[in-house]
Amino acid sequence: MATAKKRKKKKHRGKRGRGRLIAIILVIAVALILGVVVFFLLRNTPERRYERQLATGDSLYESASYAQAAAAYDAALEIDAKGAAAYRGLVKAYGADANAQGVAEAFEKAKAQLSEAEVASLHTETAAELSAIAERFFAAGEYDRVREIAAGLRAMDEAAAYSLTDRVIEATAPAVGSTVSFGTYLGTSLNWRVLHRDGGQILILCEQLVETKPFTETHIGVAWEYCTLRKWLATEFYTNAFSIQEQNRIAAVMAENPANPTDPHTVTRRPTEEKVFVLSMQEVERYFPSEAERASTGNYWTRTSANRSESGAVIVSAEGAFQTVDARDVAAGVRPCLWLILE
Question: pLDDT at position 95, please?
Answer without folding.
Answer: 79
